[in-house]
Amino acid sequence: MNSTRQKRTGGKSVGLFSRANKLLTVVQGTEAARVAVAPCVPGDIIELECNDHTGQQWEIIGGAFLACDMAINFEVVQTSWGGLFSGGIPICVLKTSGNGSCIVDSCGNLQKFNLNGQKTINVDVNHLVAWTSGLKYNAFMQRGTLWTAHTAQFSGQGSVIVQSNCRVTPTAK
Known about the structure:
By secondary structure, the protein is mainly β. It has a single domain (2-29, 43-163), classed as 4-Layer Sandwich (Double-stranded beta-helix). The protein contains no helices and 13 strands. The chain has strands spanning 2-4, 14-17, 23-26, 45-50, 58-61, 65-68, 72-81, 89-98, 100-105, 110-124, 128-132, 136-143, 148-163. Residues 1-22 and 169-173 have low confidence and may be disordered.
């Protein structure tokens, strides 16, 4: 596993490279300042609160991470959902720790589903954005006559955030 930690730099910008294949830039001001961030695709942006004292931490799909407070650390985990031998897809997940906020973006609209420990939710992995760390999940593949979906089933107490459109990587022809 690869841990990426942010460094305080006295007002300078620093780029860090992680296994998530993202260049992370740290911005720190010396006075009251604003930093504007924007996603690379049209869609919603939301703030996720992280709190070590209450246990409120998030697992964020790598492509949905946009920014976070300096007090937030995360661990980058590369995993395969659906099983390597059953056509599983590699997933990069950022696991947060610390106290502060993370900002995530989406393709389209975001919807938050709260689970109370008595129900489950199935989500197409391509529409998944983030979930609270305490949730249990099981990944599997669903097949129809003309389609295949990599699906995650979540259970327990916590929240799952999904996007209305899936992230599609253009391919060269």
